[in-house]
């Protein structure tokens, strides 16, 4: 069995399949390192109140898995999430509270006690997910990679899939380092998944890579590392502490071709502008910024199966 893609999806799938002991497993990763694209560029938050009901269910299961992991360091660190809304979007917070009983309503004063930089007019309604967490993404990826190696998974880095053909009921896969034979191919290639599907003669799933921008902004005021993750309910922006600075995003979703995504200056500026609308920080510049591709099927749920 061959897994195409060495990010979080690919390495976790490879580790679980190899641990089952029914197949020899190999991973093909086009880059020289694992997790270079979407895996290494996320906001690194485990949020049980985000996404569709299917996504939220998967998040809850993932939480149990990561809590029980025998990793050398903790994979999750508590950081509550505040969903905030101004008056125009207050009803959306009420809908969240109705749909998701694990969320707690907060008053404006309670929200500002947890994050004092919030503007009063930006928090007409607030829902808190008290049990949200930061994820140590690098540690999670290395935990899966270690489990995969221990189970005998062969990881071929710098090995982009170049072609595939059926020979005697099996796949012959041509890649940058040679050829592999496989009974089953698992496509976990993120933004490149439909391209890989086409190489295998499969029907593309209509996957769309969407660019998401993140910056680490200099704060003119001290940043308390205990501040929560704050997100506007209309997905206009989010922010959280990042060392002495503030991680900010305009929660953008710009369609993109599969690529090594780079941030646009206008999107970084938009992140600062939107965070300044909901805080009194007066952010002006960033220390660094990056972008990643979040890839979605039309219904924004995972695509699983043959």
Detail the topology: elements first, then pairings.
Elements: E1 2-4, H1 8-20, E2 26-28, E3 45-46, H2 53-67, E4 76-78, E5 81-85, H3 90-99, E6 104-106, H4 108-114, E7 125-129, E8 133-135, H5 137-150, E9 154-156, E10 161-167, E11 170-175, E12 178-182, E13 185-187, H6 193-199, E14 208-217, E15 229-232, E16 238-242, E17 245-249, E18 254-255, H7 265-278, E19 286-296
Parallel strand pairs: 1-2, 1-13, 2-9, 5-15
Antiparallel strand pairs: 3-8, 4-8, 5-7, 6-7, 10-11, 11-12, 14-17, 14-18, 14-19, 15-16, 16-17
Number of helices: 7
Low-confidence runs of at least 5 consecutive residues: none
Helix-strand pattern, N to C? EHEEHEEHEHEEHEEEEEHEEEEEHE
* Structural class computed from helices and strand pairing: alpha+beta
Summed over residues and divided by their number, the pLDDT gives a mean of 96
Inertia-based shape: elongated
- Major sheet: 9 strands, mixed
Indicate the multimeric state: single chain
Distance between the termini: 14 Å
Q: What's the total number of strands?
A: 19
- The helicity comes to 25-40%
Query: Which range does the strand content fall in?
Result: 25-35%
Radius of gyration: 21 Å
């Amino acid at each position: 069995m061959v897994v195409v893609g060495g990010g979080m999806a690919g390495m976790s799938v490879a580790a679980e399949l190899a641990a089952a002991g029914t197949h020899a497993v190999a991973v093909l990763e086009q880059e020289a390192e694992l997790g270079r694209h979407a895996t290494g560029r996320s906001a690194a938050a485990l949020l049980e109140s985000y996404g569709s009901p299917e996504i939220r269910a998967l998040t809850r299961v993932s939480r149990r898995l990561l809590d029980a992991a025998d990793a050398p360091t903790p994979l999750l660190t508590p950081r509550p999430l505040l969903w905030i809304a101004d008056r125009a979007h207050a009803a959306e917070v009420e809908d969240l509270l109705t749909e998701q009983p694990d969320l707690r309503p907060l008053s404006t004063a309670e929200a500002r006690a947890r994050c004092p930089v919030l503007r009063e007019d930006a928090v007409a309604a607030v829902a808190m997910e008290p049990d949200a967490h930061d994820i140590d993404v690098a540690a999670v990826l290395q935990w899966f990679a270690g489990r995969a190696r221990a189970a005998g998974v062969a990881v071929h880095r710098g090995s982009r899939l170049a072609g595939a053909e059926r020979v005697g009921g099996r796949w012959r896969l041509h890649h940058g380092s040679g050829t592999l034979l496989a009974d089953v191919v698992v496509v976990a290639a993120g933004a490149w998944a439909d391209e890989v599907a086409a190489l295998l003669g499969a029907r593309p799933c209509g996957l769309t890579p969407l660019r998401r921008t993140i910056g680490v902004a200099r704060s003119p005021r001290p940043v308390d590392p205990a501040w929560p993750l704050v997100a506007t309910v209309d997905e206009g922006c989010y922010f959280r502490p990042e060392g002495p600075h503030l991680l900010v995003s305009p929660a953008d979703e710009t369609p993109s071709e599969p690529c090594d995504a780079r941030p646009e200056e206008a999107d970084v500026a938009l992140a600062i502008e939107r965070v300044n609308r909901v805080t009194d920080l007066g952010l002006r510049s960033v220390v660094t910024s990056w972008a990643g591709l979040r890839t979605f099927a039309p219904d924004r749920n995972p695509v699983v199966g043959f």
